[in-house]
Design brief:
- This protein has 15 helices and 28 strands.
- By secondary structure, the protein is α+β, with helices and mostly antiparallel strands.
- A hairpin with a 2-residue loop joins strand 25 and strand 26.
- The longest helix is centred in the N-terminal third of the chain and has 28 residues.
Length: about 600
């Protein structure tokens, strides 16, 4: 006999099932809320060191975590054993490793919000995936978010802050098995990665979130980001290969070309001229008196959009280098640098920050500079010798230059001629070839040398301080001429517009001076040198410079009528030509005659 439940019992069972389902749903909602995850947030992944594999993080739960307000919510994640193995390999290759997490935090317009970010270690996580260790006492990155929303909101609406936080690992310490974040407001983790450490901060540029990087000591990202005293822990006390980067916004002030910021790194003071476009100024830590120091901005701070300290990455074109990576600097730092900061005994090499493909050699004396460039000078520019590889015996007793400049095409032609002729280059010239190759100035393709991009310049410590500044300016203008077609066109236009005896005097000067002996049949060379002689000194000094040359006995004998014209007109033509070029370079780069630097040391 079949027994059917009564109608009352059926209603009781249905009610109990409904309560159970509601309880499960409420529990799930609460659990998800406790993890503080936005439902629409992207999947949280770890880009592994190989850059080819991604793995979802495993959430862990918290018990008994105090130290926050009643609204504080903790979220934790642990790495798999496979991920930890790859992290171990990455940290072995890069001791300056950091865990980088991008988070998105919500904040109501009328409320404050704070977040904290820290490491989890193996002992922190139980087998059940719970965390019972107290976390508030360990180093943390903390932030009390100011009301600076990404979009304007009404008082009743919610602002959203997206931040990227980089937490440097302590070299030699146990590696983290995961990480946690806590917040007083809803927060989601957007991206997780291991990368090389970057200390400091960068404001949002509209495409990337604001960035804050801390040493293993952690800190408050809005109050401690300008003190780099603890950076020695991250970079094992070494300054070589570590550099500051100061990011400046665009300067739209059309009324002034001299707006600048004053910054101090430790005990040293620097002045940085602003550009019309956003730009970066680098300071190699190894050339600073106290590289791991507080940084202060005394004027022009509103133009500063970031200050970071990091180690240089490997050149992507050459994973293995046999020559030193050029220091990236503004040219204003080069003339006054002490040789004690050099990485080689008899020369140092730099990359120009404004034109990174332009490399600059500073040599200990003229002899070393000659070993690198003398044969190249005759092959490239000297009348009667162009295109020939002179032997050491032929070069003996002849003068090259006190400073040098060579574009990629000239370097490629020189080394290709030596290869074809099986010419025995000296050790320095072979080193120069390697440096040019490793920095892309020349390339070796299809069995021959070809032009790459950029140029190589050189000055020497044998020159007096004042002469070093002038020669560097002269050579730097050549570097811009090599790299910028619009500038070359502007120079040619000025040259063609001023067909005067003064211009002819300049050509005669180059031919009559044995130490110069330029081949004036080369139009490219003529336009290039014409520009550099006008812009190598301030505009006020242009006319006196050429009037003085016109008074030399050698010039009065070589070109008496032309020399007399320059003296009688007080060099007015040279001032007029230089003024046109000065206006052009001031508008484009905020440079000027005699000044190819944006940075000066106070």
């Amino acid at each position: 006999m079949e027994h059917k439940p009564s109608e009352a019992l059926r209603w009781i069972l249905m009610a109990l099932m409904s309560v159970s389902i509601c309880f499960v749903l409420v529990f799930a909602v609460v659990a998800i809320g406790r993890m503080a995850f936005d439902r629409d947030a992207p999947a949280v992944v770890v880009p592994l060191p190989s850059g080819t594999v991604q793995e979802k993080l495993r959430p862990v739960s918290f018990k008994g975590q105090g130290g926050g307000t009643e609204n504080t919510v903790f979220s934790g994640f642990s790495f798999s054993e496979y991920t930890q193995q790859l992290i171990t390999q990455f940290c072995a290759a890069y001791p300056d490793a950091a865990l980088v997490v991008t988070v998105r935090a919500s904040q109501r317009a009328t409320e404050s919000a704070s977040i904290a970010f820290g490491f989890l270690y193996t002992d922190d996580v139980s087998r059940r995936g719970d965390i019972n260790q107290p976390l508030s006492a360990r180093p943390l990155i903390t932030a009390a978010l100011p009301f600076r929303p990404e979009t304007s909101v009404q008082q009743s609406e919610t602002a959203v802050h997206t931040l990227t936080l980089s937490f440097a690992l302590e070299p030699g310490a146990p590696l983290p098995a995961g990480f946690f974040v806590s917040a007083e407001q809803p927060l989601s983790v957007v991206r997780v990665a291991f990368d090389r450490a970057v200390l400091g901060w960068r404001a949002s540029d509209g495409t990337a979130a604001p960035f804050f990087g801390c040493s293993p000591a952690g800190g408050d990202i809005f109050s401690n980001a300008m003190d780099f005293s603890d950076a020695a822990r991250v970079f094992a006390g070494r300054a070589d290969g570590v550099h500051f980067e100061f990011l400046f916004g665009a300067d739209s002030d059309e009324s002034s070309s001299a707006s600048q910021s004053e910054i101090r790194i430790g005990t040293e003071r620097f002045f940085v001229r602003h550009q019309r476009q956003a730009h970066t100024v680098s300071f190699p830590a190894s050339v600073l008196a106290t590289p791991f120091s507080p940084v202060a901005v005394f004027s022009g701070g509103s133009a500063l959009f970031g200050v970071t300290l990091s180690a240089s990455g490997a050149d992507e074109r050459h994973a293995v280098r046999t020559t030193p990576q050029p220091h990236t600097v503004d040219l204003g730092l080069i003339p006054g640098l002490s040789r004690h900061t050099w990485r080689q005994r008899d020369y140092e090499i730099f990359s120009w920050e404004l034109f990174p493909d332009v490399l600059i050699f500073d040599t200990v004396n003229y002899a070393v500079q000659d070993d690198f460039f003398k044969r190249l000078a005759f092959y490239t520019e000297k009348a009667g010798y162009r295109g020939r590889l002179l032997t050491d015996a032929e070069l003996h007793g002849m003068h090259g230059y006190n400073a040098h400049d060579y574009r990629a095409e000239s370097l490629a032609a020189f080394f290709e001629s030596a290869r074809n002729e099986r010419f025995p280059l000296n050790e320095r010239e072979r080193e120069l070839c390697t440096i040019a190759l490793e920095n892309g100035v020349i390339v070796f393709e299809d069995g021959r040398y070809r032009a790459g991009t950029g140029a190589i310049l050189s000055i020497s410590q044998s020159s007096t301080p004042a002469l070093r500044v002038r020669l560097l300016a002269h050579e730097a203008w050549h570097g811009i001429y090599f790299c910028d077609a619009a500038f070359r066109a502007a120079v040619r236009a000025v040259f063609d517009a001023y067909d005067t005896p003064s211009r002819e005097f300049l050509l005669r000067y180059w031919v009559s001076m044995p130490t110069l002996n330029y081949d004036t049949s080369d139009d490219y060379l003529v336009y290039n040198e014409f520009m550099a002689y006008l812009l190598q000194q301030p505009l006020r000094d242009v006319a006196p410079y050429f009037v003085r040359i016109a008074g030399w006995t050698s010039m009065m004998n070589a070109a008496p009528s032309l020399a007399a014209y320059v003296r009688e007109t007080d060099g007015a033509d040279f001032t007029a030509m230089a003024a046109v070029l000065e206006a052009y370079v001031a508008e484009r780069w905020r440079l000027s005659g005699g000044r190819v630097a944006l940075v000066s040391k106070g």
